[in-house]
Amino acid sequence: MSETQPVAGRADRIRGRTAVALAVVVSFWGLILVDEMVVNISLAQIAEALQLTQTELGWVVNAYLLPFGGLLLLGGRLGDILGKRRVFLVGMALYSVGCLARAVAPDAWPLIAARAVQGTGAALATPCVLALILNTFADGPLRRRAIGVYTIAGGTGAAVGLLVAGALGALGSWQLQMLLAGGIGLVLLAVTPAVVAETPRQSGRFDFPGALVSTIGLVALVYALANSQSGGWRTGPVIGCFVGAAVLLGLFVVITRRTRDPLLDLGLFTERRRVGAYLALLLMPGAQIGIFFFLGQYFQMVLGYTPMTVALAFLLVSVGMVGAAGLAARLEPRLGARTVIVLGALMLLGANLWLTRLGAGDSFWTAVLPSLLLVGAGLAFTTIPATIRATAGVDDEGSGSASSVVSAVQNVGSSLSLAIIVAVATTAGAAAAANPPADVPAEAVEGLVFEASMTASFATGAAFSLAIALVSLLVGGRNRAAAPPAAAPAPGREVTHTTA
Predict the structure, then answer these.
(1) Does residue 98 contact residue 151 with C-beta atoms inside 8 Å?
(2) Quick check: 335 and 344 in contact, CB under 8 A?
(3) Is the CB of residue 287 less than 8 Å from the CB of residue 386?
(4) Looking at domain 270-479, what is its CATH homologous superfamily?
(5) Which of 99, 298, 308, 343 could be joined to 166 by an S-S link, Cβ 3.0–4.6 Å?
(6) What does the UniProt entry say about where the protein is found (predicted)?
């Protein structure tokens, strides 16, 4: 007994340290998501304070989105080559400095430059979050739980951001809101070296041509998707960016095939199960973006809720996620990723279909509350097993690149889904405005148009949910492959013991 006690104590200390490390990296990931919601809500206040034109205000948004979307693959690869903690720290520093700089920007262009720095930092740090989780926790229950925590942080960022924006907005200072994220980022930056272990560097040369072509291609794609959301699908710049993105990303594949140490391992896309998980993650935003986008307006325009009440209502999604995350992580190895994803997709389908019945006179408690809880549970049941399957079998050296693909797929999926849902809703609203029922008074037409747009968005979310269920067939069931021989754990790495 005396010989085993020190081992048990050592294991407890390792678990405690990795728990703190997980909390730190996931907290920074959550900070990025919360801050973006705060910025979106504060845009009108910022525009009024700095006298921004609509073009300048658009660049305040795009200056962040473009480097963030374009540099994700680069951030993951740099983490593999230079060390994931090192790149994570650089990303944290850039992001925090950008947050602080935007708060003191005197006019448009310093603000836009600060947002670009912030987006670059987010692109470097984001893929390292999931990669550090993969490197810290070996395949098994602990990794599944850690991915569950990561998923919860991502899924609840919007609701928490609404709460923060509502609370700080009451103080009337958008600078204070901007400073808060920078201050929290600097605190996490100071703590990270003490609690997060560095990962080994990967040998090999850096693929500069691949990095350049993929970055420009992704920037063009993100720009096209962002600008098509306002109905500009057929404009020359948007079409040109879509064509340019297709050509450049195709060229990236050619370069990658001919490069000895490519930016991205194309072998990640040769396994059917992993591709199915990527497709599920790509489609996931489409099942819930319309709910957040239109319900927020419904709460304020129809039900008369204050911004803080809206935030509290959306916290129900977080409640559903937290309640279902642990169960999803436990069911994945027992039922298989495919079954759990299908269950989640059915939850999302039910939530969207239920909301298509929503009208102006309906009660929040019966018409909305069940759907919000169901959305949270559905997101947990779909995202957690899809992320587990997307990163399964990836070794420590390639975890940065694999994580960057997950982040890039989710980012492109969010932009694509929003563009599609806005286009469908706009078309439905225009049709309702053009042909209103004869017995509807003129002053009620605006409400009719909004209701038609909202219903169309929920129907589109239901279609995305069905698509998730279909692509989950590629993911496969339970993984019955024999586990590889266990290797000696790296120092400070969590060790998972199983018994027959």
Answers:
(1) no
(2) no
(3) no
(4) MFS general substrate transporter like domains (1.20.1250.20)
(5) 308
(6) Cell membrane
Chain position carrying tokens 């968005």: 457
Residue carrying structure tokens 């279609």: 463
Q: At what angle do helices 141-169 and 369-391 cross, to 10 degrees?
A: 130
74 with 121: CB under 8 angstroms?
no
User: How many helices, marked H, and strands, marked E, lie in the chain?
Assistant: 17, 0
Tell me if 22 sits within 8 A of 153, measured CB to CB.
no
Closest CA to 281 of 408, 156, 176: 408
- Report phi then psi at 98, rounded to 5: -60, -40
Q: Give the integer Cα–Cα distance in Å for 362 and 100.
A: 43
Q: What is the C-alpha separation between 455 and 287, in angstroms, rounded?
A: 13
Q: Using CA atoms, how far apart are residues 329 and 380, in angstroms rounded to an integer?
A: 9
| 242 contacts: CB under 8 Å, gap ≥ 6 | 220, 221, 224
At 206, give phi and psi (nearest 5°): -90, 135
With 90 as the cut, is the pLDDT of residue 92 above it? yes
Question: 169: Cβ–Cβ under 8 A, 6 or more apart, which residues?
Answer: 41, 42, 45, 177, 307
Query: Helix, strand, or coil here: 263?
Result: coil
* pLDDT per residue as tens digits for the range 139-149: 888 888 899 98
Question: How many beta carbons lie within 10 A of that of residue 40, not counting itself?
Answer: 14
Q: How far apart are CA 419 and CA 291, in angstroms?
A: 14
Measuring CA to CA, which residue among 309, 308, 424, 427 is closest to residue 364?
309
pTM of the model: 0.86
Q: Which of 3.30.300.30, 3.40.50.1970, 1.20.1250.20, 3.90.1150.10 would CATH assign to domain 1-196? A: 1.20.1250.20
For the chain, give the percent of residues with pLDDT over 90: 52
Question: Which ranges in the chain are annotated with CATH 1.20.1250.20?
Answer: 1-196, 270-479
